[in-house]
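Example 9 (inverse folding). The structure is encoded as follows.
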């Protein structure tokens, strides 16, 4: 919006709010040309409406005051237009405004209010200027603000009523205040005033005086005017001071509203004054002795204390051991045996309990406490109770992808890793060989008191067959087994001792074939020859083909041996019988 157009719009709005009548402008013009009339110094023909005349009160009735202005008849002024009863005296002089030279009943119509307003307008024009201070009374609400009687009506915009947020304009009606004239428009005969500017000037003045007189360490009083997450702002007679949440109490609080309310009066200590920025830091806890002064002497590590749980947080519980002194029980210090993830598993807000002081950080205002230390640590002699190599029987409490947890005693668990379940079987999940709730025998493999870990093994109950595999199943030996799995590269065979071996596809047959299933099927019992051993990686390679070749060779050897025997017998017979002449000739 262009500046000239905006200014014109603002002035038009003020005109609507002030609601001056056209005749008031005429009356003011008449006032400038007016010459006072002496007693009986005028006639009705020489007088016009809109003039201010001096008259004399000649009669007082219930509703009107009769005033003689030296014309052919007296005039009537409504009695309510006399704000001061002392003005209503017989034979006293009074200024009135000639409203009408002749009313409906032929009576002259006079106005005390209009005379006073025009005199006030005259006074303002001659003695006041923009910035002058005037006294006025709020008389009514209008659109955008209030109307104020300063001898004439002036407009008080809503933004200029006060220096704080206003909820209800009605509370200002009929109240008198000092106002500062912001604008006098002689053309339009209106005035705009402000109360806020005076309040701001007064506040700035008081603030400057207070900043000069205030000193650190002084005790002052203030009214709570605003509450935030980080603290409270106090109005201290013209200056705002900040009472930070950390300076409100020696105790731990989440929000200032736990201690104070809006409008509450507080007694505080001046902690710091910044005259350049006009800031004042306040403290309330400093009025009391710091309970942390000799905290290390009163609560050395190892001290047994008793207190009440005042707050629960995800990482622990705060316990108040005396007014203003709170300690933290971390979740890791709540139980020797349980892995606590939520403090409510052990304690509740309001519980009273005993704890042991673990450490004190005076400068940080922290005390670390533990409740598990009030009981004996079951892990202290766990290595004596469960020595490495000993055998135990325990209940399976939980199964995971990597093993099984068993409960050796309340609070003491051990882990059987999946790799320690079998020497010979490849276990994908503990549930393949174990069941939750079953009892299982195992061997203690290791004990770590610091980490609270005990590892167990089931396979260690028996000898490792791989350690003697080269003696019990040497290369070249024939073994029997059942086909458990068929793949594209061969077949897996479970041998009589439970060990799994592989027959590669190239070792399945001594005859050409298409698919693996053409020569072998799952569940089939086979005999094969050990062709390779790898105890370190727990692998055995078998060959059905070599076994078949060996078998075939053995059978051929039997056939050859038989032929040789028959041939030898025939020759012997021939040697025994002499040949005749014809046989010799054939030979």
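The amino acid assigned to each position is listed next.
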């Amino acid at each position: 919006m262009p500046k000239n157009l905006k200014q014109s719009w603002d002035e038009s709005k003020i005109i609507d709010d002030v609601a001056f009548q056209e005749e008031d402008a005429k009356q003011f013009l008449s006032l400038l040309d007016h010459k006072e009339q002496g007693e009986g110094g005028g006639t009705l023909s020489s007088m016009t409406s809109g003039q201010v005349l001096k008259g004399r009160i000649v009669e007082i009735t219930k509703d009107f005051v009769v005033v003689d202005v030296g014309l052919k008849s007296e005039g009537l002024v409504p009695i309510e237009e006399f704000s001061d009863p002392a003005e209503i005296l017989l034979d006293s002089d009074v200024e009135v405004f000639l409203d009408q030279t002749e009313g409906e009943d032929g009576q002259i119509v006079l106005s005390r209010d209009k005379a006073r307003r025009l005199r006030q307008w005259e006074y303002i024009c001659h003695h006041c200027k923009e910035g002058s201070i005037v006294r006025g009374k709020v008389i009514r609400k209008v659109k955008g603000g209030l109307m104020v009687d300063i001898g004439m009506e002036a407009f008080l915009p809503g933004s200029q009523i006060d220096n704080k947020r206003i909820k209800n304009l009605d509370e200002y009606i009929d109240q008198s205040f000092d106002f500062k004239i912001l604008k006098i428009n002689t053309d339009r005969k209106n005035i705009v005033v402000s109360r806020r500017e005076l309040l701001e000037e007064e506040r700035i003045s008081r603030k400057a005086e207070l900043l000069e007189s205030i000193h650190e360490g002084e005790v002052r009083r203030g009214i709570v005017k605003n509450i935030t997450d980080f603290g409270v702002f106090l109005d201290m007679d013209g200056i705002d001071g900040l009472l930070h949440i950390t300076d409100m109490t020696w105790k731990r609080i989440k929000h200032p509203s736990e201690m104070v309310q809006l409008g509450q009066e507080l007694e505080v200590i001046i902690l710091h004054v910044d005259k350049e920025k006009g800031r004042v830091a306040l403290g309330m806890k400093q009025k009391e002795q710091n309970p942390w002064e000799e905290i290390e002497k009163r609560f050395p590590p190892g001290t047994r204390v008793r207190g009440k749980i005042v707050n629960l947080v995800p990482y622990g519980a705060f316990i108040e051991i005396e007014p203003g002194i709170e300690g933290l029980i971390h979740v890791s210090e709540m139980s020797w045996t349980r892995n606590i993830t939520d403090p409510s598993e052990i304690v509740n807000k309001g519980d009273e309990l005993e704890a042991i002081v673990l450490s004190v950080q005076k400068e940080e205002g922290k005390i670390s406490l533990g409740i598990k230390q009030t009981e004996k640590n079951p892990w202290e002699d766990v290595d004596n109770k469960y020595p490495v190599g000993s055998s135990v029987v325990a209940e399976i409490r939980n199964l995971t992808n990597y093993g099984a947890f068993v409960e050796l005693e309340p609070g003491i668990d051990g882990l059987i890793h999946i790799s320690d379940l079998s020497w010979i079987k490849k276990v994908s999940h503990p549930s393949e060989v174990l069941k939750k709730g079953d009892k299982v025998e195992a061997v203690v493999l290791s004990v770590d008191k610091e980490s609270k870990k005990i590892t167990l093994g089931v396979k260690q109950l028996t000898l490792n067959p791989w350690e003697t595999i080269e003696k019990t199943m040497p290369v070249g030996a024939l073994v029997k087994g059942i086909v458990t799995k068929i793949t594209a590269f061969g077949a897996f065979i479970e041998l009589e001792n439970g060990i799994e071996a592989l027959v590669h596809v190239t070792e399945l047959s001594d005859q050409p074939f298409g698919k693996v299933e053409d020569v072998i099927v799952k569940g089939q019992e086979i005999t094969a020859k050990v062709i390779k051993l790898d105890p370190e990686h727990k692998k055995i390679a078998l060959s059905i083909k070599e076994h078949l070749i060996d078998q075939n060779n053995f059978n051929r050897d039997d056939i050859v041996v038989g032929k040789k025997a028959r041939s030898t017998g025939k020759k012997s017979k021939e040697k025994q019988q002499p040949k005749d002449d014809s046989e010799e000739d054939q030979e």
